[in-house]
Amino acid sequence: MTSASSDTTACFLALAAGRWTEMAAPTERCSGCGGGSAGCPGSVKPWLGFAVLLFTVCSLPTVSALVEGLYCGTEVCYDVLGVTREAAKVEIARAYRQLARRYHPDRFKVGEPGMEGETQETAEKRFLLIVTAYETLKDEETRRDYDYMLDHPEEYYQHYYTYYRRRLTPKVDVRVVILVTICAISIFQYYSWHSSYNEAINYLVTVPKYRIQATEIAKQQGLLNRTKEKGKNRRSKEEIREQEEEVIREIIKTKIDIKGGYQKPNLSDILFCQIVLSPYYFTTYVAWYMSWIYRFTICREEYGDEEKLYIIRRHMKMSQSQFDSLEEHNRETFMERKLWLKENYEVYKKEQEEEMKVKMATDPRMKRYRRWMRNEGPGRLTFIDD
Predict the structure, then answer these.
(1) DSSP letter at 32?
(2) pLDDT grade for 344, boundaries at 50, 70 and 90
(3) CA distances from 84 to 79, 80, 92, 185 (A)
(4) Are 271 and 182 in contact (CB under 8 A)?
(5) CA distances (Å), origin 136, targets 114, 152, 172, 233
(6) Measured between alpha carbons, how far is 317 from 314 in angstroms, rounded to an integer?
(7) How many contiguous H segments (helices) and E segments (strands) does the chain have?
(8) How far, in Å, are 57, 90, 93, 130, 132 from residue 97 at the CA level?
(9) Which range, of 20-29, 48-57, 186-195, 242-251, averages the lowest pLDDT?
(10) Residue-by-residue DSSP string for 285-337
(11) What is the rounded CA–CA span in Å between residue 278 and residue 296?
(12) Which has the minimum average pLDDT: 45-54, 163-172, 244-253, 339-348?
């Protein structure tokens, strides 16, 4: 729009300047006749050219920030609400409510005092314009963009981009997005853990050791005593077998404490509960840490079994669930060898590394693997000469 206006201006100026030159020439030729006589045709033509030039410049369109499709269109939003650019939010809201009551389609009546010439259709259009003006000025960021557009009308491309970027950007609170994401992750966590737990139970039901123990417990509790059923209440063998399987499954669930990654899911372990309870966990940890320093660093108390196992777990760099999944005799071995002492743990660690090396050296599969690496290898190439 600016380039078109400047081109038009240049063309009209060039045209007018050429016309001025053509008109000025006869004036010089007619100088002999006095120049000012009414019969000399060139005496009035220069003024005609100047008038054409002045009219052309004045009639050129100026760059305006008020464009259809942006904010309030060709009207100023402040004028629509009848407020100044320095008006506060309270004044803008008050002006909007007053105008909305007058022009609302449900409350507008044709012929009301002060509304002469207004029809239902024009009132609806005016009401939409009032709403648009209020939506533009009530938000600080939108109002800042609008004021910038009024002050810099020549940057209309930037105004288009700013307006439609703000209009098309989803107006969703970031906190809501974070909350929904955390809830989705928590639900996925719970059902994933529940699926893993059911897989572990299904496997334990097939293990003879646990199945026999569960069957004996069920018989002691009288859950597998088959009574003779007659008449309509008599069940088929398949139904009896399904019931027995369900009883064994429930006993394994209640009697066997599964540790590690297949343990029974707990709501307090999911991400949402962990975040909600994080202040409590942090306070508890700080209190426990201060108590540890006071008891074992300042007062020099002897470590208890729980503290010894904690230090051993820290030496081994294992999580609580990983440490709980170890067999009981392993933990007894740790306590017998006093692995909470750093020097004892270093000796134990070296022994485990040596034992692992011997096991790998004597393993037939490792021997085959080393032989394969020596003879062929994963990256060995064979070239065939022609």
Answers:
(1) G
(2) very high
(3) 8, 10, 9, 50
(4) yes
(5) 26, 17, 18, 75
(6) 5
(7) 17, 0
(8) 44, 11, 6, 10, 13
(9) 20-29
(10) HHHHHHHHIIIIIIS-PPP-HHHHHHHHHHHHT--HHHHHTS-HHHHHHHHHT
(11) 26
(12) 45-54
Q: What is the pLDDT of residues 46-90, one digit of tens each?
A: 556 555 545 543 443 444 556 677 888 889 999 999 999 999 999
Residue 384 DSSP symbol: -
d(CA 210, CA 254): 12
From 165, 149, 161, 136, select the one nearest 64 (Cα to Cα).
149
For every residue of 64-97, which 3-state class applies, written as one string? CCCCCCCCCCCCCHHHHHCCCCCCCHHHHHHHHH
Contact 136, 143 (CB under 8 A): yes
Residue whose pair of structure tokens reads 């077998």 in the numeric block = 241
Radius of gyration from C-alpha coordinates of the chain: 46
> 163 is written with which tokens?
């307006």
342-374: b (≥16 Cβ within 10 Å) or e: eeebeebeeeeeeeeeeeeeeeeeeeeeeeeee
- In Å, how far from its chain's centre is CA 260? 32
Q: Strand, helix or coil at 378? A: coil
Distances (CA, A) of 113 to 15, 20, 127, 173, 262: 54, 57, 17, 44, 78
Give the whole-angstrom CA distance, residue 82 versus residue 98. 11
Helices 305-316 and 342-362, interaxial angle, to 10°? 50
What residues have CB less than 8 Å from 10, skipping those under 6 apart?
A: none
Instruction: State how far the Cα of 347 lies from the Cα of 331, in Å rounded to an integer.
Output: 17
Which two three-digit tokens encode residue 21?
A: 């030159």
Tokens of 198: 């059911």
Predicted structure pTM score: 0.45
Q: CA torsion sign, 104 to 107 to 113 to 117?
A: positive
CA distance 157 to 173: 28
Longest dimension (CA), the chain: 147
Collect all residues with Cβ–Cβ distance below 8 Å to 99 and sequence separation of at least 6: 81, 82, 130
Q: What is the pLDDT of residue 57?
A: 39
214 CB burial (10 A radius; 0-12, 13-18, 19+): buried
| C-alpha distance from residue 172 to each of 112, 177, 196 (Å) | 41, 7, 36
